[in-house]
Amino acid sequence: MKPSCLKPEDKAISQRAMVCPPQDKAISQRAMVCPPQDKAIMKQIYRIALENKIKLYLVGGYLRDIFLCRQKENPDIDFCIDKNAISFGRKVAGKLRAGFVVLDRAHGTSRAVKKVKGKFYTLDFTDRRGKTLNDDLRHRDFTVNSFALELSEIFKNKNEVSLIDPYAGIKDLKSKTIRIVNKKAFDEDPLRILRAFSLAAIFDFGIEKETLRLSSQKRKKLSAVSFERIREELFKILGTADAFKYFSLMDNLGILEIVMPEINITRNVQQGPYHHLDVWQHSLETLRQLEIALKGLTRNKDIRGYLNEIISAQRRRLGLVKLGALLHDIGKPQAMRREEGKIKFHGHERAGLYLAEEIALRLKLSNDEIEALKKMVLWHLRPGYLADSEDLSDRAIFRYLRDTGNEAVSTLLISLADQRATKGPLTSEESRAQHEKLVAYLLKEYFRRKKEKKLPRLLGGDDLIKKFNLAPSPLIGKILSELEELQAIGKIKTKKEALAAVKGILKEGKK
Questions:
Q1: What is the dihedral of CA 273, 276, 280, 281, to 10 degrees?
Q2: Using CB atoms within 10 A of its CB, is residue 312 exposed (0-12), middle (13-18) or buried (19+)?
Q3: Can you give the pTM of this predicted structure?
């Protein structure tokens, strides 16, 4: 093989939308600048509001994103109305021929969903909370989401708009600061604790000190939040270029262990002389090294496309790989043994597989995501073993790609990061270089084979039953798997050769 070393580059992959920082002198004008297609659908909603003599306010993330020059692929647009938001939402859905659902009857919240030219618009209508609009904005999560604009302002031809900003949200937007609107924000909805970190990660903002202090103080309230909601915020962070920074911060504040208590058993678990960190710090460092590696690797369009692939419900493989990096050694405490004075972790990948599955089930990940995560944890050591082989055979490559399946690349990336995060006194530059060469080679090999046309089967199960008088049994599958391997590595190319190979397999089995 002719592998080449992997080198980190400058650009990082990120699932965040493109963000351009607001310019102070122009920020007051940005509220009128929204995509024509968005403006068209809002104009229809505005006409319906006029017909019904309703004053409608644009609030929330969509308004914030306008100031940040940020566009979502499928926009979520929030509207605030004095009262009767459910009946108004139903009227809008009827006029637009959109889907409609009541989200919260007690709080007067409804949603219309409209598809326009391939884009899905989620339109939420909510009754005002409190006597005034300012009262409503006070109950929102963060100041950067706590301003409003009367919908009519969108359509006025003037340089400035009358933005309603009682809690200095624009000021925090300019200074790139996440700050809660009021001190009861986390009591009203504890998920906001995680949202502080996901927003900071997405926009590369800082979190104000008092907000951080309260997020730590109120962290136990997260136990009452559904794991579906927790999962979404975690994956928002994992989808950004610097998840390590925010996971480390959540860890330091005691927040991460509330949603992922399994990590506690990995703290202060010392490792052998190949390592310089305990199990948990090594896991965090693996996540960091993965993100550093991706800065260069994602310049490759095959790797970039692979990581951007949606696995389930708009969650991409990138976030799952980062979760795999964080959990790859979660089984070490269970597997730890002392043999002849040495610390060993034999079988930790299998112990970790079950713990990772428990975490994934609790986070309500899909079956596809769970199986992918299990493969990453189970096989994360295999590339290291292959790198240590004096002669890497075609058979060994085939078996690695077969066993890891669609997660061959994910596992290679975790293995690479794992190796870079291991800097104990017994690690050597020679073994590190060999590992990196192996990973580079297998990455290329995976995508090369993926683009090749799959070889047609030389024999099928019926052929084996007829030619060799075999009864249907697991032996059939075993023989077909062996034939597939022999064909893939070029040992057999014809049906005649396949039949001869089967004879050899059966003869060997009788011994």
A1: 180
A2: middle
A3: 0.86
